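Need residues for this backbone.
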């Protein structure tokens, strides 16, 4: 007999003397695990960590703005409870790596189209307290995420000259509010409501 990894083991005794020895390897007291991300985002814990065999570690993936979590990827003797959950556990039974995979979310917009205003006049759209503006004849594109619905308000436009002040109403109203789906468009047709000479009461 030369070598064997069986334990216990049997062998046939030869006619002459033989030497029998057992070799032992020390079981590691800790394993090395490297945590990281592919794409734009962060992982908790991060960097290189050390754990006793059989340790269960809580792991969390946090995508950056404009990115989405895809799944966990591991190497070595490490198992993940739920590969598609941003918050799950990893069980460490050997050295290895744990990587969170992120992908960029396609950029989409809601497009607001204007008509009816005089040339060179600024118009605005308000969404969530933020005001977006453009010159007449130019669209206003508001970035959004796929599947998102935004709430908006379009107000009247006041155009003043040295001799008169004119009021243009969106879709015939002082202000227009509504919702729009990401990737869609909204048409705003301004109408001249009234003009007043400067100094008139």
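Answer:
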């Amino acid at each position: 007999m030369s070598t064997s990894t069986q334990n216990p083991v049997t062998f046939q005794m030869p006619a002459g003397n033989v030497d029998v020895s057992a070799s032992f390897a020390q079981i590691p007291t800790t394993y090395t695990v490297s945590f990281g991300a592919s794409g734009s985002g962060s992982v908790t814990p991060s960097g290189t960590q050390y754990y006793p065999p059989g340790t269960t570690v809580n792991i969390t993936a946090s995508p950056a703005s404009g990115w989405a979590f895809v799944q966990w990827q591991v190497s070595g003797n490490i198992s993940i409870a739920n590969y598609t959950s941003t918050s799950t556990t990893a069980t460490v039974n050997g050295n290895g790596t744990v990587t969170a995979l992120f992908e960029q979310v396609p950029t989409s917009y809601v497009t607001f189209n204007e008509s009816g205003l005089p040339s060179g006049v600024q118009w605005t759209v308000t969404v969530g307290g933020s005001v977006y503006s453009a010159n007449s004849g130019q669209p206003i594109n508001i970035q959004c995420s796929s599947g998102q619905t935004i709430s908006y308000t379009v107000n009247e436009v006041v155009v003043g000259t040295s001799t008169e002040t004119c009021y243009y109403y969106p879709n015939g109203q002082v202000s227009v509010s509504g919702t729009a789906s990401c990737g869609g468009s909204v048409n705003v047709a301004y109408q001249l409501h009234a003009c007043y000479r400067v100094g008139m009461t």
